[in-house]
Amino acid sequence: MSNLKEPLMKDQFIERKVLSPAPSNSKKLFTPFAICFFLFIYYLVAERNPSCTCSTPWTEKQITGNREYKKYLVYTEHCKIPYFEPIEDQFKNNSGHSRSFDCSEHRRLTVVTYNKKSNRHILRVREELIPHYIGMNGSISCCYQSITRGNSRKQPDDAIAISHCLAIRESTVLGQYDEFVRVTCKDNRNNEVYSDVHTVIPVRIDLQERLEYWRKMKLKRTPNILLIGISGISRMNFHRTMPKTWKYIVENLWFTLDGYNKVDYDTFANLMAILTGYNSQSANKMCNPRIVGKLDHCPFIWQDYQKVGYVTAYAEDDTFGSTFNYKKKGFNGPPTDFYMRPAVLARFHYVKRRGKCLGYKHRAEYVLDYLINFVKTFRNDPLFGLFWTNSFANNKFRDAEEIDEQFVDHFNQLEHLGVMNKSIIVFMGDYGIMVNATRYFQFSHLEERLPMIHVWLPKWFRSEYPEFVRGLMINQGRLTSPYDLHVTLEHILLTSGRTIHSPDGSLDSPSSQSLFHPIPINRTCNDIGIEDHWCACSSASSVNEASPDVQVVTQKVIGQINEMIKSFSNDTQLCEELHLKQVLDARKTILHSNKRIKSKAEYEIQFRTSPGDAVFECVAQYNPITNWFAIKGPIGRVNFDEDSSRCVDDYLMKLYCFCK
Predict the structure, then answer these.
(1) Residues linked to residue 618 through DSSP beta bridges, in sequence order
(2) By the 8 A CB rule, do 326 and 158 touch?
(3) Is the full-model pTM beyond 0.85?
(4) Which of 234, 273, 226 lies closest to 394, judged by CA?
């Protein structure tokens, strides 16, 4: 029962709204009525989801709340994450309006269908649509080309090869190894009137043999694992900009992890924590993405699933900015059984682009369609897939509205296909908005650090593992991280009975654990490898930006930035030396108190530098008596502008360099 949590103890209580005191003359009548009403609601919800293992109903005190704890997402001994309304006055006044989009000027002239009997795909021209492209009196001829990975040694993940164009005769059976095809149509004057790229999921012979081996073993039922992601969307911005999808999540009783805290700055680091259990430093050392072939030898979790009979897939909707290709070399070979990147490269090269539209659809919709084709083709086999979108929510407040209905539509398609009762689905983000006017709002600290995440468990899985349901319910209000999700994926693999190897856990977060077991109530960010800078559990209070200690700390941080710039390159003439322009925000936490001396304190500061108006933020500790100073974690860049750092290639240096 995903919308109920474990009965809460006093030190766990989370209250989403501050309730007004009842009038004194009705208090005696109201209390028993309220108890009966909430017990009735509890009964209805429990009936809707019989797999719930809640032990006892909530008490009156837990229902009405202790007003000492006002609004919190997480309220535990060492972690308190406040709750903010997703729609604030500041947001309404500054967010602007989203742009509507319509990619379908014409319907697609060609379509690919799947023949179950022959296990082959059929490419067909929709003759009824030809007049839309050439008028009533013209003629048209179409051909298709097979697209495969290229043979570039330096950039193997950025190269494609394309075959000769073969004529399409009404309908054409595609080859058994054709995954991506480009279709071109010309009129009787030889003018190109149509260009499109189709993706298919062919049932290859080698894959059939592998699956047949595992089918013969007649193992117990095991769930699909489908990870569906949106880069750059926080839990708050998801509620604001995708209300239809949020409504679908709530009405269908998904689990929501309100205390899910990102572990690093960008998509690569946060996804690597999920897929490998590595932090950013280990990922760059063990799987150096800037060297060709290194990522191929990285221990991705999808490899473990593939070894035990799962069919694997990975798709993203961007080329330049994709997770493993932005300032990186990507993969030397396909990392999964099905890998959509060649189709994305071909679309960007051959298909008309217009805003977020790529040909006849929104870029993100191609990823969702790839997911649907994947589960349709292998509906009777276990699947592991990562389907990631980069093209719309990343650092843009309202753009997610453009694709809200499409996500609901594709979730409904999964339901119609029966996939929901076969799959564990994680619908998630990697971080919140980092570059926007929202950075200067009160809740900006949480906006970036708390990505949205929702988990779906199929009914049979809930019934078979009620203790997992209970653990996940409890963890909705606990501090969790991508490392926990990695351990959970290992845990699911172990319960499948297809492997006898114990999970390795997370190398860089040994205390992380499966989300199916209750997270310790005394957990801290340090326990699970989240640096202070990224931690959303904060007890800091505001302090005057002009105070001497804040100014000293900020100057010391800027000094560290200038030292980093010098250490990156012997040629220090490329970048300007940075100077403090303005402290934008400062918060302080007392670490050690002593009546005789000033306290050692931790500062969360956000400041602007010149030249370039770069905005940075960091966490630093400072003792004004001893002048002791230390930066805790990285110095984050808020308003990254690649144009101002084009004189350097190093990704990290780009965050700090303002070119001369």
Answers:
(1) 605
(2) no
(3) no
(4) 234
